[in-house]
């Protein structure tokens, strides 16, 4: 898919249905690939951590999860790109996978959440083929554990692996598994608990107004205060600086 450079980090450009179709196609062909679902935090993390930035650039598809990214693309380059959020992308992929027969594997979150996902999928997508589910421990896996999970996913026949470890952990894991796991790996962040209803999502009007981050901040102020206020402020500064650069040197885009 074509990408537009935002601070030198490519964001894939396509319509929402085209994103779903492209990911499903990778899953049908069991292409070992990575899909990053990018928001402001991920962009800033890429700039602050060169290693993570390299992984970002190597991702096969990067969806614009955060509405601020879409607004920045339009503000800087006049590009109208609709949002493709992980919380919306996950059920869309499950629905299409259930129709096409693509096997899905769930990696991340807790055993309790995974159990609820299985139960909800049985109701919403009765024909969905679930290859397996795994809740990894809160530590680095050993080489033997890594091999076991790789073998398990590959043996399951999964074409799509939905990964929910949080940024940047899930992106680093997917990148390390590229070429080893024969599936398209999609980092969906906090989509698992939202899907089963253990965590609420912001109202539609807040999503449209780019205020979903504020809703999440109110839910988890201690954990998210630094991330949102530091990264959001830095992102706004970078957007304004880039706008000035483009105004002064329009030929250097």
TrEMBL record:
Keywords: Glycosyltransferase, Transferase. The keyword 4Fe-4S does not apply. It holds the Pfam family Glyco_tran_WecG. This is WecB/TagA/CpsF family glycosyltransferase. It comes from Runella salmonicolor.
